[in-house]
Amino acid sequence: MSQAVSWQTQDGVMIVTIDNPPVNALGAEVRQGLWDAIGAAEDPGVKAVVIHAAGRTFPAGADIREFGKPPADPWLPDLCNRIEACDKLVVAALHGTALGGGFEVALACHTRIALASAKVGFPEVNLGILPGAGGTQRAPRLCGAQEALTLMIEGKPIDAPTAMAMGLIDGVVEEDLLEQAILLAGMLVEEGKPLRRSGECRDGFRDPIGYEAAIRAARAVKRDPNLPAPGRIIDCVEAALLLPFENGLGYERAAFEDLVASEASAGLRHAFLSERRAGHIPEAHATPREIAQAGVVGGGLMGAGIATALLGAGLHVTLVEADRERLAAGLGRIDDLHERAVKRGRLSADAREAEWDRLGGTTDLAGLGAADLVIEAVTEDEALKAGVFRDLDRVMKPGAVLATNTSYLDVDDLARVTDRPADVVGLHFFSPVQAMRLVEVVAAAKTAPEVVATGFALAKRLGKVAVRAGVCDGFIGNRMLTAYRMAADILLEEGAAPAEVDAAMRDFGFAMGPYQVADMAGLDISWARRKRLADSRDPAQRYVAIADRLCEAGRFGQKTGAGYYRYAEGSRTPEEDPAVADILQAERSARGIEPRRFGKVEIRQRCLFAMVNEGAKILAEGIALRPSDIDVVMLAGYGFPRWRGGPMKAADRLGILQVRNALRGWAADEPFWTPAPMLNDMIKNGRHFDDMNAEEAQKS
């Protein structure tokens, strides 16, 4: 027996226990243990086998760290085939989340029983791959093409009762799972019925015409051509009907290996691992503070979104505004967000009422005296925010966390106006809060470790991804965004059109280009900030004033029907506008720039390499712990194409030398492009950003 898998026999039933915390991943030791257990079941004294797991879940998938490496025997497909071929009844007892390879092991068993709270599914598509241990062949044999395709292409888990209705699970119990599985095994052995092997089942083929129609319908759906996994899943499910089982398994395995080797899967796997790695922080040892009551100061769009998210996490929330009129407006925004969630089926009417019962509002900051956490979300004005923090310092109880949602301001400066700087932290949410998964947890110089840990715990409770950031103007995300936008603005000033830049970045994988995003967000917000910072701007740095000229002309984006594009009445569809071309030409003439044409490749490279260069500076300054944290910020907060893995991962793929040389060439004409010293050091030492990720992982 291995440490990860053990077994014992009880009244002729071999009970096999998987114990590989935290999620019983099917690494090599677990696979070998299960292989040996099935071999041990050949003992004449064994009449049946029950496979279950200790801890919180049945295996929640394969160990993706093994992907792309030389395979370690036994392979998961071979293990599943060995389980299915066993001449003793094998029962899978499922609890927690039996996903991916874990669900494939269950499907290879002859009978499946689950707790009602269990969830099953195939999330592999989210990693750019498909179920590669028989899932695409066994599942459709049990439930048909439509259900199998939905399960695999959407990648979302389903609950045990739904899986039972589909024919993927044979029984659901409310409690005593292992005892019920042992009883079921004994009963089935006593009945003496033939073993029901999924590979031999044809229940899902009862309606071959409907099966083929489901395949055609799935193929007709327009999908991202950069993500090949859905198409290969459809092919494999079709092969389940057309090919003998053994041949279908071979077809599936070839497709799996192709996908694992693809650029898309490499990027998606990097994104997945990076999000897990982001939680490895220096403060991980600290115990988070308990948060039951929270306050939000400011009821604008951001404040209302934060308050709604806190309510959704089960907290009691008090919203504070300057006067009754603004308070009513803030509460109205929360009500609107609740109403939209109910209409979309994301929130029940009863849950909405329960959340509303936990919400209070006041115009007096003293009403936050019992709060465990207060998040300030007022206008991005340093004096205003500092005043709020002084007042909070006076009214909040000892040990309460004071958080700011600032996007750019110095968290150390805000902490200094209080007598409790250890309790101050930045919690930078992204708009719209209900849709954006990212929270930057900004650790100031004196922020206590348990306060940083509290920020991460809160983000997890909210279902969001937290990334630790140091204090600087814009932290990680907005610094990266500023570099991206500066690169795009230089392209505009030197000859490109907004539509050309946007099209190039959409081709790269962004849902929208930078100027579409700017028009949607509103140009007046960033214009106001630029005017506030005008006196502190470095005169030696290039300043592109095109956005200022648009704002001076009253072009604030979609809200005014004109920005970088024009918009027909009531439309959000951008149309190129000759008036913008005139503004561009006037700016070029004023700077003595002779415009030139840029191809899509150069536009993409300039925008990407500007982000990579800024990322290298952020790392050198210690603002981000590791390159993959920068990737997570850009993926979760700024729409960077997930299948590319993030800007730092993209740079590794292209080659740091290529990035540095391109930057060096452009820097001959414009200092903005000067390569960060870190890039030169990496080239000298033959290092990649992934090397830094690995080194940081060893520290944690």
Could you name the key traits of this structure?
700 residues, 29 helices, alpha/beta, single chain
Task: Write up this protein.
An eight-stranded mixed sheet has the order 12-11-10-13-14-15-16-17, sandwiched between helices. About 50% of the residues lie in helices and about 10% in strands. The model has no long low-confidence stretch (mean pLDDT about 95). The protein has about 700 residues and is of the alpha/beta class. It has 29 helices and 17 strands.
Number of helices: 29
Strand arrangement across the biggest beta sheet = 12-11-10-13-14-15-16-17
Characterize the main sheet: 8 strands, mixed
Q: How many strands in all?
A: 17
Distance between the termini: 31 Å
Work out the helicity level: 40-55%
Uncertain parts: none
**Mean pLDDT score:** 95
General shape: globular
Category from helices, strands and their pairing: alpha/beta
> Beta-sheet strand percentage?
5-15%
Give a quick precis of the structure.
With 700 residues, the chain is of the alpha/beta class.
Topology diagram in text:
Elements: E1 5-10, E2 13-18, H1 28-40, E3 48-53, H2 76-85, E4 89-94, E5 97-99, H3 101-108, E6 111-115, E7 119-121, H4 135-143, H5 145-154, E8 158-159, H6 160-166, E9 171-173, H7 177-191, H8 208-220, H9 229-242, H10 245-260, H11 263-277, E10 293-297, H12 301-312, E11 316-320, H13 324-343, H14 349-357, E12 359-362, E13 373-376, H15 382-395, E14 401-404, H16 411-416, E15 424-429, E16 438-442, H17 449-461, E17 465-469, H18 477-493, H19 498-508, H20 514-521, H21 523-532, H22 546-552, H23 578-590, H24 600-620, H25 627-637, H26 647-654, H27 656-667, H28 677-684, H29 689-699
Helix pairs in contact: 1-2, 2-3, 4-5, 4-9, 5-9, 8-9, 9-10, 11-25, 12-13, 18-24, 19-24, 24-26, 24-27, 26-27
